[in-house]
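Researcher: Following up on the earlier apo prediction. This time include the ligand. It's flavin-adenine dinucleotide, with the SMILES given after the sequence.
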Amino acid sequence: MKPAPFEYRVPDTAEEAVALLAELGDEAKAIAGGQSLVPMLALRLAAFGHLVDLRRLDELRGIEHQGQAVWIGAGTTQAAIERSDAVRTAVPLLARATPLIGHFQIRSRGTLGGSLAHADAAAEYPAVALTLDAGLEALSPRGRRTIPAARFLTGTWSTALAEDELLTGVVFPARNGRCGFAVEEFACRRGDFAIAGAAVAVGLGDDGTIARCAIGLFGLGPTACRAAEAEAALVGSEPAEAEADDIGHLAMSGLDSVPSDLHGSAGYRRRVGAAVVARAWRHAVQEAVHD
Ligand SMILES: Cc1cc2nc3c(=O)[nH]c(=O)nc-3n(C[C@H](O)[C@H](O)[C@H](O)COP(=O)(O)OP(=O)(O)OC[C@H]3O[C@@H](n4cnc5c(N)ncnc54)[C@H](O)[C@@H]3O)c2cc1C
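Model: Understood. Below is the ligand-bound prediction.
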């Protein structure tokens, strides 16, 4: 199938882009790498009278180390993130999650902002942003604001962004102190969306106990989410005390909307989810202990 006809707009600045989105209302949609939007248009799951292409907006691209954080432009491709030394050293969780996204052809067009704004429940980047407590910078004709990752995802394929609002960049805290990171997922074939996945960030205090712990889950609900109960149970304990399989099961216990579809029942996803959390926890804590 081919998409329904649309007008194609290519603004030169982000201000111009949001003004166009405001003027055209729900008839318009921003397009970045097109790796999610184009299939939806081609299958006629969505139709818009106007597409506003973000490709000329250089201000949406780049990776900058800023003190204790790394800023990444929303229009930065997943491939550029994958190649970045700054991301590898300062935001290792993001670096490790990126090669799990689709295939390299997809990553060479797909963008950080597109993945976050598309908000697929099984996507890696929303879970990484949640796990790292990233700040998502947005621009609209009303000005700029920063949306904490915890408030960004509002449902399947829906976010806190207004219709005329663009993501411009994302601020990820840089790694700090003794810490470890891991992302694990299970998919039927390499490059497919995950049936279930987990991202773990763990930080140790001066006494070697777990001072910080974040467990992000994807593919296990309507949006990526945090396993708050498991995190709370871990903080203050000795890394050796925490039994990985128990953490996996605890992480699943707080979930009440695990999807059931042709890729797997909710029960199957819970079992896979517990296993990927356990595996990610083991790797992250091992890295932290040896840091
Ligand atoms: C075969 C295949 C396999 C894939 N596998 C995976 C996978 O395993 N994991 C995964 O996470 N993803 C996967 N993807 C999706 C891929 O990561 C997309 O790149 C990503 O979801 C969207 O990024 P994009 O830049 O292509 O956005 P687009 O497709 O251009 O846009 C997607 C949505 O985001 C909005 N948008 C884009 N940029 C902005 C912005 N700056 N501000 C506000 N809104 C914006 C658009 O309006 C649209 O609603 C796969 C895609 C394909 C085709």
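Model: The radius of gyration is 19 Å.
Researcher: Noted. I'll compare it with the apo version next.
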